Amino acid sequence: MPVRHPANSLCLGLLCAALVSGCASLTQPWQAPAVALAGMRVKEITLARQTFIVTLAVKNPNDRALPITAMTYRIQIEGSEVVQGASVLDRQVPAFGEALVDVEVAGSLLGLVAQLPSLALEDRPRDWTVSGTVTIADGLLTLPYRYSGRVDAKQLLSRTVTR
After folding, report:
1. pTM over 0.90
2. Which of 4-8, 20-24, 44-48, 155-159 has the lowest mean pLDDT?
3. Average pLDDT, stretch 9-13?
4. Please, what are the domains in the chain?
5. 3-state SS, residue 155
């Protein structure tokens, strides 16, 4: 019968602990992406429905590709919500990279009506906020995001928005 030496058991235990901690460090927790408003254009405006195509710039701060399967979003201008939406996506944002994502959003007629006079009459930058969630890993993980910036009123309905 072989004799077990206590030093061998200790070495085996340390080796197992090192392997487990090494594997854990390979999969760091996901960091939420930075999501910025990159543009907005009108798709349809009627009394019953206001639809826009919003371009979001999604920056991936992770060291691996970000597999986006869905997003929700709310966009506010000067503190008033103007559009919101949700999309099922199949996008890979490269590690430490950025991708433009076009999403369809439904507008709030009241939010738009409140903003139109000042947008049309005042030539000054506006505060914007985009917030929502990014769903990754086949729907297993949802990451919240919230970012703000300023937009020139003349550029709001073009594809150029400053961050």
Report:
1. no
2. 20-24
3. 52
4. 34-155 (2.60.40.1820)
5. helix
Tallying the residues shown for the chain, one arrives at 163
Residues 163, 151: Cα–Cα separation, whole Å:
8
DSSP assignments along 93-142, one per residue:
EPTT-EEEEEEEEEE-HHHHHHHHHHHHH--SEEEEEEEEEEEETTTTEE
Beta-carbon neighbour count of residue 109 at 10 Å?
14
Bridge partners, 46 (sequence order): none
Angstrom distance (rounded) from CA 127 to CA 91: 28
Q: Which of 133, 162, 134 is nearest to 148 (CA)?
A: 162
The angle subtended at Cα 74 by Cα 70 and Cα 80, nearest 5°, is: 175
Residue 13's φ and ψ, nearest 5 degrees, are -65, -45
SS3 45: strand
CA dist., res. 37 & res. 40, Å (int): 8
158 falls in which pLDDT band (50, 70, 90)?
Answer: low
Distance of alpha carbon 66 from alpha carbon 140, whole angstroms: 13
